[in-house]
Design brief:
Length: about 230
């Protein structure tokens, strides 16, 4: 039996392990346990934004063209928050509550259009222009966690079915101490630890020419001061 001399055995073995890991199986044949879901105390209050009765006065526009608009098929009522700028590297708006240390955030988002990017994301622990963001992109089959500090750096990534353009999707992130988990469509995809940022406010995010709508933002967090 001949072996492909272009693929060393060690490389082939590593590739096989990667395929097994993707299906939750170790090289010994045992299933890999899914990470336990981290949770905040149940008695923490939740602040909700459906953009029906409240405008975005008091929000901090970091970059982008953010407006409340009426939109057919909105998840709650008739109004949503839309980002329509197309020439910025990133578009960020930060909600008034906070700062929070530990936080549980969810939002519904609809990527409307974009040729370079068609994404929606949750910003958390925003402080002095630095933050984490978890985002999904209708043009890419990945769900990613980044940090931003004078530039964006990737921390974790998972392969996903791209969220379809013109449809509503749900993203969620939970940060408890240095432990960060993120969900897309109700499924846990990211589980990561990072000590870089400890507290800050919550916001929304798009990239480049993404036109994206957001609704039903829910923030449940523990104040950074205790």
């Amino acid at each position: 039996m001949m072996h492909d001399r272009g693929v060393p055995r060690r490389t082939a073995f590593k590739k096989a392990l990667a395929i097994l890991a993707a299906y939750g199986v170790t090289w010994r044949g045992r299933a890999v346990a899914a990470p336990a879901e981290i949770k905040l105390p149940e008695d923490l209050p939740t602040e909700r934004f459906d953009f029906e009765s409240k405008s975005i006065e008091g929000w901090t526009r970091v970059a982008g063209q953010w407006t409340v608009e009426e939109m057919a098929g909105a998840p709650s009522g008739k109004k949503v928050l839309v980002q329509r700028a197309t020439r910025n590297e990133f578009n960020v708006i930060v909600a008034p509550p906070g700062p929070f240390g530990d936080v549980d955030v969810s939002v519904k988002f609809k990527p409307i259009s974009g040729r370079e990017d068609a994404s929606g994301g949750i910003v958390f622990r925003f402080n002095d222009g630095k933050y984490y963001v978890v985002r999904a992109n209708a043009l890419e089959s990945n769900f990613r966690l980044y940090y931003y500090d004078r530039g964006r750096r990737q921390l974790a990534s998972a392969s996903v079915q791209p969220p379809a353009l013109g449809q509503w999707h749900t993203a969620r992130v939970v940060a408890l101490g240095d432990h960060i988990q993120a969900w897309l469509g109700g499924k846990l995809y990211l589980d990561h630890r990072d000590t870089r940022f400890r507290s800050g406010r919550v916001g929304l995010w798009t990239k480049a020419d993404s036109a994206t709508a957001f609704d039903d933002l829910a923030i449940r967090g523990a104040s950074a001061g205790g």
